[in-house]
Amino acid sequence: MLSGRRLDILDPSPMDVELSDIAHGLARVARWNGQTIGDYPFSVAQHSVLVLELFRAANPDASSAALLQTLLHDAPEYVMGDIISPFKTAMGGNYKDVENRLMSAIYLRFSLPATVPAALKKQMKKADQEAAYFEATTLAGFEPGEATKFFGEPGVAAFEIEQFDRLIQPWPTRQAHDRFIASFETIATLIPAA
Fold first, then answer.
1. Would the pTM count as exceeding 0.90?
2. Which of 14, 137, 155, 187 could be bridged to 108 by S-S, CB 3.0 to 4.6 A?
């Protein structure tokens, strides 16, 4: 990793996880395999910020830990890349096991529970699918009906999300990196010290 850490992807240690590496990697991984409109790819870092804002809008009383877990929901992709869910399923259990171990190490690195409770996971998944719907219809050429079939109908309208137009327009790599870091730092300051 650029931080100097040596992450063993098969047996990850929380001590080898650095926020700078996560932000750097996610800002350079394109959603939709880069098949989106705009001057820049829509990065996983930007997607993570969008999911956070959709989650926050639907769950205004969510804890800071839940917000941080939501922001980090795709963090393993900083080393594993963004692989679409149907392909992950086709690849089988080993891929998911590696991803889950890495996710746990990431959460532990930032003093979060290693796993996400089922109710929170469901809320996070809903925000993730809403983000996918908006990305599909705004950036990836999907018709609304087609996107609804794959991702469901969003529970919130785009105009209800503060600065939605800025959240959905693809950001340059540095902006995606910086916005991801800023979101993390803003939330982290709200978590009480242990």
1. yes
2. 14
